[in-house]
């Protein structure tokens, strides 16, 4: 740009050294697009967008007040409030099962609550942050499985209608499964019990052992989504 | 890709074509991710911000004015998403000067390479100053545009940018003298 000093030009030139994204990430985005839209899928009218902060708060409050029946989640972590032994359900959870560490993270701003089930201990950073447990996934052993299930009380994205799926969920509900050199990712984007739900299943190997696949499928079937109505 | 082709894809995607939407995403994905990475300085945060930003944009195509090119509009959505991610992680409000992986990477330079010295100096800025530098010099946003995106007064952004540059120059001079 004109009028810039040599120093500023060098500063600007640094952007050329920003690295490239991981190749399999684009596959995940494609999968989300396919799962979320579908060819010819009906689309929400412009009136039904995701509400802003106020609307979200109201919706979340309604969820909390309405969740008198708790789910069988192991522990509940709120990124803002620490661990709570008997905290209320946020609308999604896993039924308890041997061999799985199950937690429920509090609501992240702009997103729904996330329930996580993993065959390995969850990283404390993931518990503190909430949302998708990326640090646990980064260190996942080859026989490990992580399932993260997020409910979006106000819809996954404005103007999207996710396909309705009846619980229990199974791996066959996943619209896409993409192997990467060291991981296998599945994603389910669906409307379950009138709530938009995103489930991400990560295996620690490009070709997961059959036992891990079977266990993951069983654990998926233990996801409980609170009926919004 | 010619503008007419992009516009055709936008029209088809609005009408519900997933293949057109996918093509648009593929067209802009790499630079969308790079923008998210430039803002966050962190690969995992960039992954989330770029994915959600791109999907959000595709979901909001109805509000896009297709007489204009798509990229500036998409870039703004991704940048906003990346800034939200930083705010959520409290990486803008903290006094701590995080040495993000991006800056560690840029700082990895051969002796005498001035760009590496500049990268190291930028890494030493406070998070907000660093973000303003990135938005202005890497993403080509004007001071007014940055002010709108960060919800700060224009004067505040201008003064932080000016102080950031002064701090960078001072750091580099100290290093050269020292």
Structure overview:
The complex is a heterodimer of chains A (229) and B (178). Chain A is built from 6 helices and 10 strands. Chain A has 229 residues and is α+β, with helices and mostly antiparallel strands. In chain A, the strands form 2 sheets. In chain A, strands 2-1-4-5-6-9-8-7 form an 8-stranded mixed β-sheet, with helices on both faces. A two-stranded antiparallel sheet of chain A has the order 3-10. Chain B has helices spanning 3-14, 18-40, 43-59, 70-88, 101-107, 114-123, 127-138, 143-150, 154-177. Chain B folds into 2 domains: 1-89, Orthogonal Bundle (Rna Polymerase Sigma Factor, Chain: A), CATH 1.10.1740.10; 99-178, Winged helix-like DNA-binding domain superfamily/Winged helix DNA-binding domain (Arc Repressor Mutant, subunit A, Orthogonal Bundle). Chain B contains 9 helices and no strands. With 178 residues, chain B is mainly alpha-helical. The chains are: A alpha+beta (229), B mainly alpha (178).
Q: Percent helix among the residues of chain A?
A: 25-40%
Query: What Rg of chain B is obtained from the alpha carbons, in whole angstroms?
Result: 18 Å
Task: Indicate the proportion of strand residues of chain A.
Answer: 15-25%
The tally of beta strands of chain A, per DSSP, is 10
Instruction: Decide which structural class fits the backbone of chain B.
Output: mainly alpha
Number of strands of chain B: 0
Biggest chain-to-chain interface with counts: A-B, 41 and 46 residues
In order across it, which strands form the biggest sheet of chain A?
A: 2-1-4-5-6-9-8-7
Order of helices and strands of chain B: HHHHHHHHH
Low-confidence stretches of chain A: 38-89
First-last Cα distance of chain B: 50 Å
Secondary structure: helix percent of chain B: over 70%
The total of helices of chain A stands at 6
> Into how many domains do the coordinates of chain B divide?
2
Individual helix count of chain B: 9
What is the CATH class name of the largest domain in chain B?
A: Mainly Alpha
CATH topology of the largest domain in chain B: Rna Polymerase Sigma Factor, Chain: A
Question: What is the arithmetic mean of pLDDT of chain A?
Answer: 70
Fourth-tier CATH superfamily name of the largest domain in chain B? RNA polymerase sigma factor, region 2, helix turn helix motif
